[in-house]
Amino acid sequence: MDxxxxxxxxxxxxxxxxxxxxxxxxxVVISSGTCxxxxxxxxxxxxxxxxxxxxxxxxxxGLQITGCHGFCEMEPNILVYPDGLFYRNLAPADVPRVVEExxxxxxxxxxxxxxxxxxxxxxSRQTDIPFYxxxxxxxxxxNLRIDPTRIEDYIAADGYQALAKVLFDMSSSDVVDLxxxxxxRGRGGAGFLTGLKWSLCRDAAAERKFIICNAxxxxxxxxxxxxxxxxxxxxxxxxMIIGAYAIGASQGFIYVRMEYPLAVKxxxxxxxxxxxxxLLGKSILGSExxxxxxxxxxxxxxxxxxxxxxxxxxxxxxxxxxxxxxxPTQDGLWGKPTSINNVETWANVxxxxxxGAEWFAKMGTAKSKGTKIFSLVGKINNTGxxxxxxxxxxRDIIYGVxxxxxxGKKFKAVQTxxxxxxCLPKEKLDLPVDYETLTEAGSIMGSGGMxxxxxxxxxxxxxxxxxxxxxxxxxxxxxPCRVGTRQMAEILARITQGLGEExxxxxxxxxxxxxxxxxxxxxxxTAPNPVLTTLRxxxxxxxxxxxxxxxxxxxxxxxxxxxxxxxxCVGCLxxxxxxxxxxxxxxxxxxxxxxxxxxxxxxxxxxxxxxxxQAVSKYTGKKREKWLRPAPPEKGE
Amino acid sequence: MKIFIDGRAIPFEKKRTILDLARENGxxxxxxxxxxxxxxxxxxxxxxxxxKGRKGFPPACSTFAEDxxxxxxxxxxxxSLRKKIxxxxxxxxxxxxxxxxxxxxxxxxxxxxxxxxxxxGCVFCPENGRCGLQEVVEAVxxxxxxxxxxYRDLEVRKxxxxxxxxxxxxxxxxxxxxxxxxxxxxxxxxxxxxxxxxAIGTAWDRPLLQSGCQFCGACLDACPTGALVERSARPAGxxxxxxxxxxxxxxxxxxxxxxxxxEKIVSSVPLDQDPVNRGQACVxxxxxxxDPVHNPRRALRPAAGKxxxxxPLDWDSALDTLAAGLTKYGREExxxxxxxxxxxxxxxxxxxxxxxxxxxxxISAVSxxxxxxxxxxxxxxxxxxxxxxxxxxxxxxxxxxxEADLSVSHPLVWLAVVQAKRHxxxxxxxxxxxSSLARCSDLHLRIKPGKEKLLxxxxxxxxxxxxxxxxxxxxxxxxEWKRSLDSLDPAGARDFLxxxxxxIKSAAQFFQKKPAVVLFGGDxxxxxxxxxxxATAWNFARLAQARLLPLLSSCNERxxxxxxxxxxxxxxxxxxxxxxxEKGTIKSVFTAGHPPSYDGPGPAFQACAACFxxxxxxxxxxxxxxxxxxxxxxxxxxxxxxxFSAVIRPQGEARxxxxxxxxxxxxxxxxxxxxxxxxxxxxxxxxxxxxxxGALKSGRRSPEGPFVDExxxxxxxxxxxxxxxxxxxxGPERAFQIVFRDNESSYGGLDLSRDNRGLQRIRDSRWxxxxxxxxxxxxxxxxxxxxxxxxxxxLAGPARxxxxxxxxxxxxxxxxxxxxxxxxxxxxxxPADIRxxx
Lengths: 637, 838
What we know:
The complex is a heterodimer.
Chain A: H1 7-20, E1 26-31, H2 34-39, H3 41-54, E2 61-66, E3 78-81, E4 85-87, H4 95-104, E5 114-115, E6 122-123, H5 130-133, H6 151-156, H7 161-169, H8 172-182, H9 194-203, E7 210-215, H10 224-231, H11 233-247, E8 251-257, H12 261-276, E9 292-298, H13 307-314, E10 338-342, H14 343-355, H15 357-361, E11 371-378, E12 384-389, H16 394-401, E13 411-416, E14 422-425, H17 435-440, E15 449-454, H18 459-473, H19 479-496, H20 504-518, H21 522-526, H22 529-537, H23 539-548, E16 560-564, H24 574-578, E17 584-585, E18 593-594, H25 604-608, E19 616-620, H26 621-628
Parallel strand pairs in A: 1-2, 7-8, 7-10, 8-9, 11-15
Antiparallel strand pairs in A: 1-3, 3-4, 5-6, 11-12, 13-14, 13-15, 16-19, 17-18
Helix pairs in contact in A: 7-11, 7-14, 8-9, 8-11, 10-11, 10-12, 11-14, 18-19, 19-20, 20-22
Chain B: E1 2-5, E2 8-11, H1 18-24, E3 50-51, E4 70-72, H2 76-90, H3 132-140, E5 163-165, H4 175-183, E6 190-192, E7 199-201, H5 218-222, E8 228-230, E9 241-246, E10 255-261, E11 264-270, H6 283-288, E12 303-306, E13 309-312, H7 315-328, E14 334-338, H8 344-357, E15 362-365, H9 368-380, H10 390-394, E16 398-402, H11 406-409, H12 411-422, E17 426-430, E18 443-445, H13 452-465, H14 470-473, H15 478-486, H16 493-497, H17 501-510, E19 516-520, H18 522-525, H19 530-544, E20 546-550, H20 557-567, H21 574-583, E21 588-592, E22 605-610, E23 620-623, E24 632-635, E25 641-644, H22 657-668, H23 678-688, H24 690-699, E26 736-742, E27 746-747, E28 750-751, H25 752-755, H26 757-762, E29 768-771, H27 772-778, E30 785-789, E31 794-802, E32 809-814, E33 829-836
Parallel strand pairs in B: 1-4, 14-15, 14-21, 16-17, 16-19, 17-18, 19-20, 21-22, 22-23, 26-32, 29-31
Antiparallel strand pairs in B: 1-2, 3-4, 5-8, 6-7, 9-10, 10-11, 12-13, 12-23, 24-25, 26-33, 27-28, 29-32, 30-31, 30-33
């Protein structure tokens, strides 16, 4: 393919790609992002290739390898078009049957069809599955169609049309105004108006300007940026070129953590393909606009996602945040005005340009427009990436799209916004999700992590986990964050170990206030959020830990013990055999007893005891104490 | 424009931080990480303030004042927040003493306990009483640390020279790291790890010796706590008194504050406000300054002797001996040498006495470089020694450094180069020898030894090819210079010079960026090639429109040069005088300072007035006052006049040179040499020396200090230079060439790099440097004893492997009194071979 020298060349190329597409009887789409590959998609692809070749029907049936479709729980999964069939959790051994039955004979294989874990109802077509049906997939949808290693697929899906429109029909201020009118806000967490950021950067006087894509996604359990970069890198690249045009930047950087090797690979290839097509570099599409992009890999520090730390890292320095103001739009990379936006924000730009600000603003709430991708994880049936409109209720995400809590347990809390976010209780399930409501409730939108917790989760332990994370990931520069999170984590650890003291809650609140108001960057400002929200909504659990030595969720090891109920135990030896430390004594058909001195509280006995018997109990607090008290000596001994 | 702090209006003009403005107006805002020489960091969070209309608590240290800003620096809310943050700092720093209610009455017990191995409280800490943390605790007022103590229990690092590091006391303010990066350009230390493991240290936690550390001590001075301390000052505790002094250990003359216990200097710290060094020093000034004063080798009483035997004399008979020795032979047969380390007053009086009192025609400084400068000036009617300011170098856009390892020889110039680099200047270094400068250079030209002149010629030629402005072409002598250059063959450069044509082209291109400066040390202009090197450098500088800045070596070399210009009829060339001594035509020699070395038996009578007894051949040694024991002036390499006063009495019976001469003149009955003190001497000198009188009138009161009146002559012309290349030097073919470097770490003839055990580990003058590649081929490892065979003799020493030395080159540093032949000196290149001793 030659360099595109004018916008018409792009259209021509697109038509040529569409015209040149082979007409298959059926096409199998295989989801093969990082999660897909980890679940075995590479083997599935191989199996399809072999099977089609063996039958010599590779010209009739196509294979399309794409990035992640979002439904992690079902990986590896495939789609069969034109029927739109969805097969889940495939094994390589299933492939010959799929080829035989579904491709050749056109039958549905019932065993591979998705079944709702709650209702048992089966859905053979992907679009009917509630997980997909209830989403509003504006950004993610192309992940179903596009082979991320082929620029042609992106071009065929109207790729770079927005860029052509911007370069030849719009002035830079038109672009900024349009994005401003759309109400697009930063998807990285703080929710700053993208158009406003661009206009600040555009108006800053400087001979050089930069743009940066922040792909240093570090929140535990969050991976929407990875999926976008892996599955549709050109959408981000196109968004960035448009942004660069709007701002007047000549160079841009994609800062992606090196723990995302597939994203690095795909986005690096995408840049090369775009460069070859004349979509990056000098005179883009024959215009007078010059711009190029570079990939910079981060070394894995969470704080590198903080914008000033990220820029320090690109400059080759230690990823230390610095005091703002000045903001990057004034004094950014190498001291030049810089607009730094998140992956998802950049990916939103091309559709806004193509469809207009009104189209974008139609979805969402008064202040939060468009859709947001969440990574829905934890104790949820449909683990995966979900794209929903702003304003959707938490309940609809968790129960509608997410399919409810695993194993029919009770919902306890949902943690949004990663380690900087907070835990919201069931009373907040009807909260319409947008930037403001979450902040009011004590949490944050963050980059879109959503961790669902069930009744077995100890909220003090959750707070401890997140504080531990921020403590370890604090860059160490400012005192409140470095030492304050350390002191908070120590207190939380003590509480979960049953060593909490009266006054610990006050101490935590005091430290939280110091860390939040005294810290240098966002990491410190928000680090106390998990503690503050759990204290706000689950204070009883803290009090129970401290006063009664009891963990209401029966999770904290030091506060629980496992016992075998003599009246329920049937003496089946199951628990005795599974115990890794031989702490259970007993004989066949005789009641088993756990030696509390030896027990390491791994819970293996609890899990192995058959559901209909449930002889193993987990007790905390007073009940546990009663059980632990040595029984009075039996008479006759 | 103005801001309001707690209601008080404070006017300001340029971009300033709130903290700076508050401090200047006497408003206290606590801070630990801020430092006047460093960029804002905002880490300690103690300077948080409230600003009307802004949310949160912005830090005063990194928030710039804006007109009309309404700031609260004091409020109950801020007080409580600062207390809590300080409490967090103290939860990681031993705090029992800091918040002890008995601390006021603890003084009596803490006399010796700071000698303890590990500091666990203020009374054990050498910084007690001058600690930034103590000051802040006092100001913020904290009675109790609410949080449990999280002691880090890190190993105290004592494995380095001079510096002890106890990171258990570190509060991670980052001042040490920032000064090492921002000011020193050494980047030896950095932040390590993150979270609770965050710490300061070297790469892979190696000793500082292996980290690129220059041991300048800037980190110690920047550290607000006792985490970094000077080992030797640790047991001494706080000083009795402090005094200012000018460091005599290189030609910059840093302003220092010496800390004294009685009559003993215990430590020396760079002066923050000094116009030359601005709070910076180097390893010599910071850690070794006291060594030449309080040294067991000092000459403490007059002594006569020969062949190793020394007979003590009283001053009276010693002066008689000297008077007799100076008049025993004819004037033509008598010579006087001056050390370029002598204060201006002393040197002036000696010169005056020898020339005007005794009529001796042979007077010279012991400096090969000065021979060359005087020679150039006489021949070309152009003045090579000019005034400059370190700021001129810091503001340059392109810099060429020839044959000088600035970080060792002129550390303050190195700092100016670091600043220039920070602002985007291009740095080109050319050296056959080892240079730590090389790793920071944009281009390092590893020329073969002795080929500096050729390099400069080829650089000029390449600069000419880049195109020359018309005013350069119209300078006097241009056509002749161009003809000389045309005779050079750039393509032959690689073999003969060891540098590719492309590199020379790039170097010339760098020099398109102006202002451009060319820096060189004394080694380039010493020896037989010196005059040719200087002339070529001169012409290159005209061509490239660069400033040619000669970096003199000794603390008063510039002053002696100016005296030479004033007194300079007679013979001033130390080389020819020494040659006459070796021939025996000069029979009597007096040296003020340490005498030069001669091949052969030396003169019939030889006397010196020095701090350290010279080699065995000297007949009479008069103990002279050292640095800190006398008052006077130096003229530093910049041309700045640096005055200093005695801070202690001379050791033993030592006397300042001026007094020795005054007493001698009196004894000999020569009139006109009676002076009360150096001040009256200076008055006379300022009257007589043109270079001093204008400067002293105008510059005395400026904070920059006065400069000598420089003579700007010949700047508008090229000087004649021819290029004649000889083939390989005749003589036996040997595998290596030795280049000699001046020992930059000496004073009064004392080789500090051997005398001081710490400095010895950093730069021992006995090291024989060899390139790593050659070492590998010869089976030599670091520290092996090697023997260098130079034909007429052998020399043994420990091998030091170097990455920046070219193959086939050995580098040896000369030290006074090392007994080596005189051919072993900078500017000379000798063929040699090397082997490892088994």
